[in-house]
Amino acid sequence: MELSAPSSSPSKKQKKVVVFDYGFGNVRSAERALARAGADVEITRDYDKALNADGLLVPGVGAFASCMKGLREARGDWIVDRRLSGGRPVMGICVGMQILFARGIEHGVESEGLDEWPGSVEPLQAEIVPHMGWNTVEAAAGSQLFAGLDADARFYFVHSYAVHDWSLETHNPAMEAPKVTWSTHGKPFVAAVENGALWATQFHPEKSGDAGAQLLTNWIGTL
């Protein structure tokens, strides 16, 4: 699949995206991928810039507890909460997705997450761990994030933990139910979520070639 170049029309203003730099993420790779997808990107942990950008991307690598500690020290928990309270888009990737859940359990130790979604991040249930390499996903019906992508599109994963059960539902007909995308490594796990202003992927779109670039283009198009 070839990714079309972003429009160069001078009348179309680029969307401002902040890659939140709290010490736990591939920020340079994310910056390059977002720029390729047409965004005006800045890597920063500045509170006001992160709060006021059109989109905020929260990366994450390493241990759940360490990422949460770094995020809190950089006031990232406050930024994510305030942005979502105002309906302003946030996207998490890899551990940046995992910390959006209520808790993470690593080596038997439970750590609190941001609790934007209920559920636990737990060890993968597979013969081979970590799950490292390319894999397909089962995109949610009506997904905007995976729009324009083939059903057999592959994305790059590097992780040893995941969410295996999704429990958040909505019974209010005025509210759109979250769109949950799944992948399988041993047991099925949550690979991506679209929930109002909050989107996230377990895989690395910035390492997923043209498929990842199209996915980021789709996100930027909603900002």
Automatic annotation (TrEMBL):
**GO terms under biological process:** L-histidine biosynthetic process
Please give the pathway this protein is involved in.
Amino-acid biosynthesis; L-histidine biosynthesis; L-histidine from 5-phospho-alpha-D-ribose 1-diphosphate: step 5/9
- What are the entry keywords? Amino-acid biosynthesis, Cytoplasm, Glutamine amidotransferase, Histidine biosynthesis, Hydrolase, Lyase
Q: What is its EC number?
A: 4.3.2.10, 3.5.1.2
Looking at the keywords, is Magnesium present? no
Q: Name one GO cellular component term.
A: cytoplasm
Give residue ranges for domain Glutamine amidotransferase: 18-218
Name the active site residues.
C94, H204, E206
The terms under GO molecular function for this entry are: glutaminase activity; imidazoleglycerol-phosphate synthase activity; lyase activity
Stated role: IGPS catalyzes the conversion of PRFAR and glutamine to IGP, AICAR and glutamate. The HisH subunit catalyzes the hydrolysis of glutamine to glutamate and ammonia as part of the synthesis of IGP and AICAR. The resulting ammonia molecule is channeled to the active site of HisF.
Binding partners and assembly: Heterodimer of HisH and HisF.
List the protein's name. Imidazole glycerol phosphate synthase subunit HisH
Q: Which organism is it from?
A: Streptomyces afghaniensis 772
**Lineage in the entry?**
Bacteria, Bacillati, Actinomycetota, Actinomycetes, Kitasatosporales
